[in-house]
Amino acid sequence: MLLFIPLFSIDLFADESLEDLMNVESEAKVDIGSRDGAKNYFDAKSAVDVITAQQIEQTGMSSLTNILRYFVAGFNAPNPSISDGSDHVRAFTLRGMSPDQVLVLINGKRLHTSALLHVNGTIGKGSSNVDLDTIAVDAIQRVEVLRDGAASQYGSDAIAGVINIVLKGYGNKNKVIIQGGERQKGQGKRKFISGFISIPLKYDGFINFTVDTIKSDKTQNAGLDRRLTPPVVSTHYGLPKATNYHLLMNAEIPLESGSLLYSNILLNKRASQASAYFRTPDPSRAIFPNGFLPMIHANIMDYSATVGMKGEIFNGIKWDLSQVIGQNSFAFGVTNSMNYDLNSSSPTSFNNGKLVFSQYTTNLDMKKQINDTIALALGAEYRVEKYNIYAGDKASYIDSGSQGFAGFQPANETNSRRENYALYVDTTFNFTPKLSTELAGRYEKYSDFGSTRNIKLAGTYKVTESFRLRTSASTGFRAPSLAQSNYSLTSTYSSGNTIKTKGTFKTTNPIAIKHGARALKPEKSQHLSLGGVYKGENYYFMADYFYTRVNNKVMLSGDIPINIGNITDMRFFTNAIDTKTEGVDLKGVYNYKMDDDKQLDITLWYNYNKNTILQINTPYITQANSLTALDRIENGQPKNSQRLLLNYKTVKYNVTYNFSRFGSYSQVVSGVSQRFDPVMISDAQLSYKITKRTNLSLGGNNIFNTRPNKWKNSGKFKGYNGILPYSNYSPIGFSGAFYYVKATMRF
Amino acid sequence: MRLYLVIIRSILIFLLSVNSLFAYQSEDALKVAVMGKIAKYISWPNETSSFTITILDNPFGKKVDIAYKGKKIDGKKIKIIYINNIKDLPQDTKILYIPKKDSYKLTTILQSISSKNILTISDIRGFAQKKGILQLYFLSRKLRLKINLGVAKKNDLQIRSVLLRIVKIVKDES
User: Fold this and answer.
1) Under an 8 A CB cutoff, do B21 and A595 touch?
2) Please, what are the domains in chain B?
3) Judged by CB atoms within 8 Å, which residues 96-125 of B form the interface with A?
4) Structure pTM?
5) What is the average pLDDT value for chain A, to the nearest integer?
6) Which value does ipTM take for this structure?
7) DSSP letter string over A606-673?
8) Which domain holds residue A387?
């Protein structure tokens, strides 16, 4: 630590001019973790991190998922391919836990999840996560990450942590971004155009609009298809071709009374397409006798609308009343395909059905700083969730269904609904200037599975003015999603070199019940964290140990062989296993200001996490039928990761270099496990201020074109003996470097 | 891995070899510092023997005392007074800081000190438009100032032109 002690400091009042003061940046603060006001990294009772708009701008990334992947050690978001819907909605994990064990907030309010349930063999299989790419990145002021269990404060899902996305507020300059780039060999071209406009209102109110479009070409990393003679590349394996449109509005209208009316609206429309496996030539196919490559289309519509009002009443009670409505719909389509059983009368384009998830949340928060010692917060929440499956065209599901992705059938349709209400209390006691504790409790009642009570006790002790210890212990839960309870689909799938048909059944389906399905219970969790933070004048260092136990984690069962109609196997969701996750985060930040115009910021971050399955609670998951799934939980993600973030800025220049290392990971295929080496990648951007209003940037992600290991005996193992050279678990994808040029104009 | 270690070692060597200025400050530290700095740009009509800064419902803990202990403005010793009721405002107050938490009673506070030649400072949203004089706010984590010249003039406060180049001027709506 001695290495980091600055050699001198200054007295702000004595040494700095007013203009100098106005050039000093204030410390980043977060609003999550406790309800007694925004806290910086030192005062927070749990480990918190902030990613600022300035940092986001220096990445050249237009995907929030990618931004978090490179800024947060322990955040993992692979880019799977040939995985049906999971190609188009990125699953992400924090600390190696499940994607649905992370709560995401927009301006402190719960954001709905995607309607998509990941059911292919990808990281996050069996879960639905928030689709972070529905958010326009240039609308973001900062992203706050709470690395602690917080379900006793925020409700379901906040097990691995909480991500709070704070939108730009008052006074931001209007901005236009134009960016274009591509990968090697001209692949993966991407165009990104974004506009941000802020209209000031009375009393520092504002209404901000962000609109953008992102057009991305596919990347191609497929290996040779050895089913063909001679072997050729027949299939698409890489990033999908996608078009994204975002529209985001954020407004705050201060009223004469001192109260504040606020609202935000997020809209995202995405059209994305990726392939299934190539279907080999067969003269008996009337439409495609020479073979064909089915293309799976995802048409995603997502919106979230928040309206609320907050203020303070005469005796210092702050109140906040809000209503949030959110919906995500995911429509499947397949083109360049056919239904074998319809043969010559088969269409080649199919509507394969639609998934829709809707969420309506009413929330009332009240808090009061009673005196210097005690702060009290109370709240209530009422939430309604709906989940719908709509069937596709008849041709997409009858008999063998459309090749590539069989449509949802009328029997799969569901119109499920549940509601829940919550009451919570959060109190902070500052017993002494050094000792601060927090006690939080939350009661929730769900219409489908009943009630749950959770509690959190946290404390910090300021050993010296520079060194603080912190700890927390809590219980939590995750309500099984409506999708997990109500999803069903019969689909074709590949096993070895044959195509089979299997079904995912609702837990309430009589056939599933006959084979052991039961109504899902909530996942229950216990958390413990212990850590400390040491700060100097220009640096700080955090070290945190964490332990999380999850009981009754929901998983898809293994395939249960049956012979009913055309179904050869069935599976259903079940409270399958108990898990333990433990690890450490070590993070150091150094801000070196050379003079008023030059500054170097350095962040070093190490994360270690280890998932262990403690026990299997159901006979429908065994090492025999679920080895791949069980190993995915324990070994499918890097157990350690490191980040080195460097930024050097002057008046004219801004240089960013981010280095990421992801530890090794494993994947089991056909009962055989392969371990993949750690991967290290570098991202860099150089920005130059051409005029007062215009910046030009050159940059790249994964600039040294790092690729993960291929499968051993590459080309003769995965995907019909070699179509898939890389593992879908790769934490950096497998599409290599992306280089771009970007112009940013402010006015 | 070797590259990784080389990079870390290079950074440590670099950090050992440099001096550093402050990069980041807490919002409170910047607000407290501004209270003293701003006085150099303003002239008050009444001559007093000391320079009194009054803090209403102190939101800063000991930060103001620490920053101004033993300091002077215009050759006058700085006196810091903490009050919890505007009725207790010292007569010789030059600067009154009104915290955000008093926004619900702002109108009452400002009416009670109208035309008393006091520079009011606050981080209350819309403060300058609500007939306060100097508003502090943060934009991209940097401190920014708004000033209501009309209200300053009514209080016979003279603002030096150099200040007007770095603050945002709010029209007097009264």
Assistant:
1) yes
2) 25-170 (3.40.50.2300)
3) 101, 103-106, 125
4) 0.92
5) 91
6) 0.84
7) EEEEEEEEEEE--TT--HHHHHHHHHHHHHSS-SEEEEEEEEEE-SSEEEEEEEEEE--EEEEETTEE
8) 2-746
